[in-house]
């Protein structure tokens, strides 16, 4: 640009000088014999003025074209910027693609525009238009099937720019109620070598055909559309993954929490039924206890849905919750239970760690009740060198660790511990009981959480 300006400056100085010199030579040599000195001067002045007018007209015409190109480039850059902003701020695919096709029409001065989104089968799955009202779209009827000129762009993956649609050999005409169209430009939307859609424009306002500059601009918008399509698909996959993760979380919580609580309530009701015949006085307290458990289970279900803490942890810490679960286990199974809490064992545990450990203890004690055939169970809470340790051991029948276990309880425990960056160790053998150990790293005091 600086070189161009420098050349223009030189031309603006030397061209008038050359013109005046040439005009003077012509006037002096050609008209000097016929005109007086005054006449020659007037002729030179007239020729110089005429040359200045012609030169100025030419300069302003060139400057006007340059200004038009500058304005057009500014519009293109503004449209690209707007498309980029829409792409980064809006995750709704239809909204972003509609803005892309609208801006494509605006920048190229096209009357109609369309963007076809292809499905996995390579056929048109969605078709967004610009320049037509909703009523016009409805009168046309069903979506295009990718025949004619649209099909050429889809199948060949090449840009197609023609001046008259009707004269192209692949033109298949228009359906009823379709507006007439003359010029056409279409190109594929490609992401990582794969055609994901196509962008089309028809009929420049004023009747001119589409240019190479229009084609280059359309490529820019096709690139934006490709990114928008891929981002929307990735966003959809993330949403699907989030749904699956949430389903798994709720499933684990229901298994580890609600099902175990309902199982304990069922045992209480069974005891009440047994006491109904020979000790009726014990029935009412047990029924009241079962109702209390059911109310707590309902509260826990609400908490699991909204990812809140179990209701029992609202009134006590991990050690207190472990003590409550052990007492219930003792009442329902007559097992001997022991809780050993070292000083400050639970200090420094985060809320997420406490909630996960609560479910680990709940699931472990349920496994003891269902499978261990133990006489005693011991839960130990301790902390050493920045690591919290939970140990649950029983003196039951144990199991063969080389054989797969039924159910998902141990798998849930392993997943919960792993999600917190902890370590799970299970030791068991036939006839030697089972010991489950969980170790979790604690955050250092003063470290950002």
Features:
5-stranded mixed sheet; alpha+beta; Heat Shock Protein 90; Beta-Lactamase; 449 residues
Care to describe what's here?
This protein is of the alpha+beta class. 26% of the residues are buried. The radius of gyration is 41 Å and the shape is elongated. The model has no long low-confidence stretch (mean pLDDT 77). The protein is built from ten helices and ten strands. The protein folds into three domains: 2-77; 95-239, GAF domain (Beta-Lactamase, 2-Layer Sandwich), CATH 3.30.450.40; 309-449, Heat Shock Protein 90 (2-Layer Sandwich), CATH 3.30.565.10.
Short description, anyone?
The protein is built from ten helices and ten strands. With 449 residues, the protein is of the alpha+beta class.
Largest sheet: 5 strands, antiparallel
Q: What proportion strand?
A: 15-25%
What is the CATH superfamily classification of the largest domain?
GAF domain
Overall average pLDDT: 77
**Number of DSSP strand runs:** 10
Measured distance between first and last alpha carbons: 55 Å
Count of domain modules: 3
Count of helix runs: 10
- Multimer state: single chain
Q: Specify the structural class.
A: alpha+beta
Helical coverage, percent range: 55-70%
CATH class of the largest domain equals Alpha Beta
* Largest sheet, spatial ordering of strands: 2-1-5-4-3
C-alpha geometry: elongated
CATH architecture of the largest domain: 2-Layer Sandwich
């Amino acid at each position: 640009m600086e070189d161009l300006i420098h050349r223009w400056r030189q031309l603006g100085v030397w061209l008038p000088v050359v013109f005046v010199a040439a005009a003077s030579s012509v006037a002096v040599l050609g008209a000097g014999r016929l005109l007086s000195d005054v006449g020659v001067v007037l002729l030179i002045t007239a020729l110089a003025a005429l040359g200045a007018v012609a030169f100025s007209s030419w300069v302003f015409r060139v400057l006007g074209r340059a200004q038009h190109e500058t304005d057009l480039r500014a519009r293109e850059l503004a449209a690209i910027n707007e498309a980029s902003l829409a792409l980064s701020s809006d995750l709704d695919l239809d909204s972003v693609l509609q803005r892309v096709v609208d801006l494509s029409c605006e920048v190229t001065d096209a009357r109609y525009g369309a963007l076809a989104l292809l499905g996995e089968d390579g056929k048109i799955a969605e078709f967004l238009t610009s320049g037509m009202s909703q009523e016009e779209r409805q009168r046309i009827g069903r979506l295009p099937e990718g025949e004619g000129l649209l099909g050429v762009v889809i199948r060949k993956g090449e840009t197609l720019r023609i001046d008259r649609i009707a004269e192209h050999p692949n033109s298949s005409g228009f359906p009823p109620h379709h507006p007439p169209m003359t010029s056409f430009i279409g190109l594929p939307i490609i992401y990582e070598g794969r055609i994901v859609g196509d962008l089309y424009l028809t009929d420049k306002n004023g009747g001119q055909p589409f240019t190479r500059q229009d084609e280059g601009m359309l490529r820019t918008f096709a690139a934006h559309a490709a990114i928008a399509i891929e981002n929307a698909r990735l966003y959809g996959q993330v949403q699907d993954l989030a749904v699956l993760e949430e389903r798994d979380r709720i499933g684990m919580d229901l298994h580890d929490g609600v099902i175990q609580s309902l199982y304990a309530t069922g045992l209480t009701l069974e005891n009440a039924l047994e006491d109904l015949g020979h000790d009726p006085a014990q029935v009412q307290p047990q029924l009241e206890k079962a109702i209390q458990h059911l109310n707590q289970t309902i509260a826990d279900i609400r908490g699991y849905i909204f990812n809140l803490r179990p209701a029992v942890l609202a009134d006590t810490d991990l050690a207190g919750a472990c003590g409550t679960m052990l007492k219930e286990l003792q009442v329902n199974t007559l097992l001997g239970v022991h809780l050993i809490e070292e000083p400050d064992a639970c200090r420094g545990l985060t809320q997420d760690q406490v909630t996960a450990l609560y479910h680990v203890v709940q699931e472990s004690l349920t496994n003891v009740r269902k499978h261990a055939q133990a006489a005693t169970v011991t839960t130990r809470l301790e902390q050493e060198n920045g690591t919290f340790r939970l140990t649950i051991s029983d003196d039951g029948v144990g199991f063969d660790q080389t054989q797969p276990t039924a159910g998902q309880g141990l798998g849930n425990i392993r997943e919960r511990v792993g999600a917190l960056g902890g370590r799970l160790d299970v030791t068991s053998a036939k006839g030697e009981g089972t010991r489950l150990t969980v170790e979790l790293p604690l955050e250092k005091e003063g470290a950002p959480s």
